[in-house]
Amino acid sequence: MKSIKIEALLISDVHLGSRGSNAKELLQTLKLYKPNYLFIVGDFIDGWLLKKRHYWTQDYTNVIRKILSYSKKGTQVIYITGNHDEFLRNYSPSEFGKNIKIVNEYIWNDYYITHGDLYD
Predict the structure, then answer these.
(1) Can the peptide bond before residue 93 be classed as cis, meaning omega within 30 degrees of 0?
(2) CA–CA separation, 84 and 76 (whole Å)
(3) Cα(38)–Cα(116) distance, integer angstroms
(4) How far is CA 108 from CA 10, 14, 117, in A?
(5) Rounded CA separation 88/77 (Å)
(6) Do the beta carbons of residue 27 and residue 100 sit within 8 Å?
(7) Tell me: the pLDDT tens digits for 39-68?
(8) Which of 21, 60, 70, 110 lies at a 20 to 30 A Cα distance from 54?
(9) pTM of the model
(10) Which strands sit side by side in the sheet containing 33-41, from one edge to the other?
(11) How confident is the model at residue 2 (pLDDT cuts 50, 70, 90)?
């Protein structure tokens, strides 16, 4: 099945590291599309839960591999930090390679994108 080309794909609150994460379903969605931009809008990795106990499945690793594959093939990956992955805010803004950025907020095509916890 050929991937559908789209301008942008936004995902949020995936919570990798929690038992409630639907990583397998997310992976199926990621396989359907070939976005120019992938926006990860906070709480992708649940640092709060991972601090308490280690829980990581192969599905979680597969999701990350797919995102890295997107990046390798030219998709701009913009990781916008949230409250559960606030540990990454210490590295914001950062760029990893050519196509991966970690930021706290982002403006794209006149849209302001943030996780929202910055306003709690």
Answers:
(1) yes
(2) 23
(3) 18
(4) 12, 21, 19
(5) 15
(6) no
(7) 999 999 988 888 888 889 999 999 999 999
(8) 70
(9) 0.91
(10) 4-11, 33-41, 76-80, 100-103, 94-96
(11) confident
